[in-house]
């Protein structure tokens, strides 16, 4: 696979592209909730933006997660997976309020598939298991097109990142404005930074 034994930094990228086989869904909004392992039995929960179920079901959203670790971290990452949930929200107010979301389908993809692929990247359609009894019999199951990638930075980029990480930051430099970023455990996978980027 070509990953260094002395790995000190890597980037994991996740892309939610589009969904299909959801013609039976009534009017409302759809979004994808995904769960990423953060080490020490912790998970990060992220949602895509909500899009109308009556339009093209395309999100084209990416997230990039930076993590610090060594070869053991890579082995731990191989044991982890990303859980994808396709969720629906009724946009018609009930008693003046928009209700919570409803789980429609679920899928899981292992990081091992990515780490064992050529180029450390995959892009594929994932068939989802429906959790809704509203799916008419005989229809194809919902599917989600995703991309996953692991990138090991070059030596020059790793040195720059080490300098940036080691420089003390004020609470407002991270952009969170609540001061909790100083509590981040830098040994946790995916716990260094998470930034959502809409392409």
From TrEMBL:
Positions in coiled-coil regions: none
Protein name per UniProt: C2 domain-containing protein
Domain C2: 1-126
Organism: Tetracentron sinense
